[in-house]
Amino acid sequence: MRSPSSAYRPATTACDVTTLTLRKVAAMTAVDALLAGLAAGEVEIVDLTAPLSPETPILQLPAPFANTIPLSLEVVSDFDDAGPAWGWNNIHTGEHTGTHLDAPVHWATGRDGYSVDAIPPQRLIGPAVVLDFTAEATQNPDFLLEPEHLEKHVANNGPLPDGAWLVFRTGWSRFNKDAAAFANADQDGPHTPGVSAAAAQWLSQSAITGFAVETVGVDAGQAGGMEPPFPVHHFLLGANKFGLTQLQNLDRLPATGAVIVAAPLPIVGGTGSPARVLAIVPA
Ligand SMILES: [Zn+2]
Fold first, then answer.
1. Out of 21-25, 213-217, 237-241, which region has the weakest mean confidence (pLDDT)?
2. Per-residue confidence (pLDDT) for residue 97, from 0 to 100
3. pLDDT at residue 154 greater than cutoff 70
4. Mean per-residue pLDDT over the chain, rounded
5. Which tops the pLDDT comparison, 9 or 40?
6. Which domain holds residue 196?
7. N or C terminus: fewer CB in 10 A for the chain?
8. Ligand 1 center to 103 CA (angstroms)
9. Quick check: is 106 catalytic?
10. Residues with CB under 5 A from ligand 1 (ion)
């Protein structure tokens, strides 16, 4: 039924209709193209998330520092008297367990930045730029990304795109079912690949949205002894950028051309959150 006021609306011109229709078609095309690509098998979704279980390795800081707890599930009901037709659990764990996002407020330098719930969702989705240092990290677990590696990449490929996730591929996820191998610690602490202080500063001044790794944290195992300590945390979180950790399946990403979708829980005031991280990849 027409509302009484509709009689007083100005007539819509054919031109308005055409403009509106074109806008609608244009707006739908990008999403339609993605859906058509998925249906045709021309677009693949790669899960970059490590399985989350009580065995998932977590960061272990030395005394006197406190640590978070690994994941545990506490059964509330399991099709029993406590819930005859349903099963559910309470989850217990830290914000930084398994594949997770580091929000700026995780670090002293970023404490005025975004908590995990406040991150604009557009900043969680961006083009993936994958730098493959698997060979170097296999040969030297303490391998560090340096500014010259980044400058060489830029010289060959152009500047890092706005809002990109820079993905540091090291092959380290092959250890993620073995906590000891994953930490690779000796009397000097953990030995895992990472980023030099100079390269972390370089990245903080680039257009990237964040830095993504396969290891337990975004900094190198030996980063506590760098100046400043834990430079990726220091510089990137201080620049209101993000970290993504414990990714896997990075061998299924092209060097460029994929899109990363990081989906942390919007924990109000949270310093980070376990996240499902998916890549949209041309098949
Ligand atoms: Zn973290």
1. 21-25
2. 97
3. yes
4. 93
5. 40
6. 72-282
7. N
8. 8
9. yes
10. 96, 102, 272
Distance CA 55, CA 128 (A): 28
pLDDT of 4: 46
Structural domains counted in the chain: 2
Within a domain: residue 99? yes
SS percent in the chain: helix, strand, coil, step 5? 35, 25, 40
For residue 178, the CA-to-ligand 1 centroid distance in Å is 19
Q: Are residues 18 and 85 in the same domain?
A: no
Confidence tier at 6 by pLDDT (50, 70, 90): very low
Question: Is 66 inside any structural domain?
Answer: no
DSSP annotation of 61 reads: P
The amino acid that residue 77 corresponds to is S
Q: What is the DSSP letter of 247?
A: B
Same domain, 138 and 39: no
Q: Are residues 88 and 192 in the same domain?
A: yes
Shared-domain flag, residues 27 and 106: no
129/178 same-domain check:
yes
Same domain as 103, residue 27: no
Stretch 274-282: mean pLDDT, rounded? Answer: 98
Residue 37 and residue 130 in one domain:
no
Tokens 């240092």, residue?
133
By three-state DSSP, how is residue 264 classified?
strand
